[in-house]
Every structure is written in structure tokens, then in C-alpha cells.
């Protein structure tokens, strides 16, 4: 380290700090949890705003560690991405979601789209397409009932993103841009990328009933989406006032605590029974 001079020392030092004990601990615990099948999924309803009908659900990973308790995905997903564990964890998540959706289909709930979050790391995993195909085959889920949510950080290399997203679309899977508008969104990539849906970031919904700028942005996104023949969904809807603004903006779909929190598979099943009166 010394021989390489000051910069490499600093690099080494920073790296050690980043890989703090907690991180190393969580990495090891994640490996164990994958082996012991301790990751579960919750499902948050997605709603057609005009009719109020359920159209699908977003799968969200949950980790209830036997000693450490509930660890939020915002904490362990970034570590899973850094360490590469997201590859195997992502497969576990996709398989569980597809299995569960197929089970619900067999019970007669045949019109639900499952949305699964795909981290940028996963998008560029070289066997992603093969793995997705395998999981769909093994779980017997038709690809048209699967949607992958990808954030725009995946689009820094637009050519790479375009070809991999096209391969996903060629399988019959839908693609949604998550957290749309939150980063350095550029409408130019909407010209090139084969996506189906824009998911308006919750930050615009949070103050939409008070803030004219947020209203204008949401209206703009809905209009552009309509002209580009893209679907739009608003996330993080918590109040009736926010919902009313989205109705005014003619935003077709919504998701958030106002409709329902993410639910365990059992509770989501209860929700389905009520919704479909089966
Ligand atoms: P995201 O994909 O943007 O997911 C939305 C987050 O907002 C979820 O938090 C959800 O529980 C929460 N949420 C839903 N409705 C409301 C609402 O009305 N108000 C508020 N305040 N929050 C709401 P969660 O489950 O903690 O997930 C956080 C992030 O972790 C996700 O953001 C996603 O980036 C990541 N994540 C979660 N599950 C997975 C997964 O299975 N795979 C991957 N790769 N990432 C995941
Ligand atoms: Ca998401
Ligand atoms: Ca989101
Ligand atoms: Ca987010």
C-alpha cells in the first residue's frame, strides 16, 4: 500500500470504511438466509383508478431475521447488489413471486399481473434471460403475467439497456420504469427504450395536493405517456386528496397505502377473495 503512494492508501482506507462490520455481517447473514429460505415476499395491490379494480401486485422482498428482527430491503438490497448476492437473491424472489401468482391463477384469479423489481446489477447479469425463461417454465407462469420494474439508473448505457430490455420484451414480459422522474430522467430515452409503463415516483405524489409543480409534472408525464402509448401508474398514494388530483390528471393506475399496504401472501389472498367475491 505504502509503495503505491497516497491515493491507493486513501482508496484502501475508504474501502475498509465502506465494508464496515455491519455490512460484512449482513452479507454473511444474507447467504445463510438464502440457504435457510428466510426471505419472503409481500404483495402490494395495483389499482385501476377509474374502476377501483385490482389489476395486479408488486412483489416486495421481506427479511425477518431470527435474531436481528425485520431488516428493510432499503438496507440489505444495496449490500446484495455490491456483493453480487443480488443475482441469487433476485432468482429466489422471482421464483417465489411466479410460483405464488400461478397458485392464485389456479384458484381462479387469472387476470393479475405480477410486478417484480429488477436491480440494475441483475439487468446486466449475463444469464438473466436464461434464468427468467427457466423460472417461468418451472413455475408454469405465462410471461404475459410478468412485469419487471427497472429504475433509470439502468439506462446509463442506453445501447446495452435497449438490447437487454428488447430481449425481455421478446419473451412477452412487460417492462416498467420505476421511480420515474426521480433521477435525471430524460424523455429522450423513452424514444429508444422498449418499455410499457412509467411508474411516477412517490415524491411527486407526496405533495401533489399542495404543490403546483408536482401537479404540473404529473400531468405532463401522463400526457406524454398517452402520446407515446405507454401505461402510467402513480406510486405512494396515501390520501383521498392525492387520489383526487390523480383522477384530475387522468392517471390510469395507482398504488399506495390509500388502497393497501404490502400484504403477506395469506392476507393478499383474503384481499382477492373480497375483491373477486369468489
Ligand atoms: P420501490 O420499488 O420504489 O418500492 C416502493 C416502496 O414504497 C416499498 O418499500 C413499499 O412498501 C413502499 N410503499 C408503498 N406504498 C407506499 C405509500 O403509500 N407510502 C409510503 N411511504 N411507502 C409506500 P419497501 O418494500 O421498503 O422497498 C423499498 C425499496 O427496496 C423498493 O423501492 C425497491 O427499490 C427495493 N426492493 C424491495 N423489494 C425488492 C425486491 O424484491 N427486489 C429488488 N431488487 N429490490 C427490492
Ligand atoms: Ca418498484
Ligand atoms: Ca418505486
Ligand atoms: Ca424507490
UniProtKB/TrEMBL annotation:
It comes from the Bacteria. Keywords: Coiled coil. Residues 23-276 form the EAL domain. This is EAL domain-containing protein. The chain holds residues 425 to 702 of 705 of the full protein.
Amino acid at each position: 500500500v505504502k509503495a503505491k503512494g497516497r491515493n491507493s492508501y486513501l482508496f484502501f482506507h475508504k474501502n475498509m470504511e465502506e465494508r464496515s462490520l455491519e455490512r460484512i455481517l449482513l452479507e454473511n447473514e444474507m447467504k445463510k438466509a438464502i440457504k435457510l429460505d428466510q426471505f419472503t415476499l409481500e404483495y402490494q395491490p395495483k389499482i385501476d383508478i377509474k374502476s377501483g379494480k385490482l389489476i395486479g401486485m408488486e412483489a416486495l422482498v421481506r427479511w425477518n431475521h431470527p435474531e436481528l428482527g425485520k431488516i428493510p430491503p432499503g438496507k440489505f438490497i444495496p449490500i446484495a447488489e455490491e456483493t453480487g448476492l443480488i443475482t441469487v437473491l433476485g432468482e429466489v424472489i422471482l421464483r417465489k413471486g411466479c410460483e405464488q401468482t400461478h397458485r392464485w391463477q389456479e384458484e381462479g384469479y387469472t387476470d393479475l399481473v405480477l410486478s417484480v423489481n429488477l436491480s440494475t446489477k441483475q439487468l446486466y447479469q449475463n444469464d438473466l434471460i436464461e434464468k427468467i425463461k427457466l423460472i417461468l417454465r418451472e413455475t408454469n407462469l405465462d410471461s404475459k403475467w410478468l412485469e419487471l420494474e427497472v429504475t433509470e439508473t439502468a439506462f446509463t448505457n442506453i445501447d446495452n439497456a435497449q438490447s437487454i430490455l428488447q430481449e425481455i420484451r421478446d419473451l412477452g414480459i412487460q417492462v416498467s420504469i420505476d421511480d420515474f422522474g426521480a433521477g435525471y430522467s430524460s424523455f429522450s430515452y423513452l424514444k429508444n427504450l422498449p418499455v410499457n409503463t412509467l411508474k411516477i415516483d412517490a415524491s411527486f405524489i407526496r405533495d401533489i395536493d399542495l404543490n403546483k409543480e408536482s401537479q404540473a409534472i404529473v400531468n405532463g408525464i401522463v400526457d406524454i405517456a398517452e402520446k407515446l402509448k405507454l401505461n402510467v401508474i402513480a406510486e405512494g398514494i396515501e390520501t383521498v386528496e392525492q387520489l383526487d388530483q390523480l383522477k384530475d390528471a387522468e392517471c390510469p393506475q395507482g398504488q399506495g397505502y390509500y388502497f393497501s399496504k404490502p400484504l403477506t401472501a395469506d392476507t393478499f389472498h383474503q384481499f382477492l377473495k373480497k375483491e373477486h367475491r369468489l
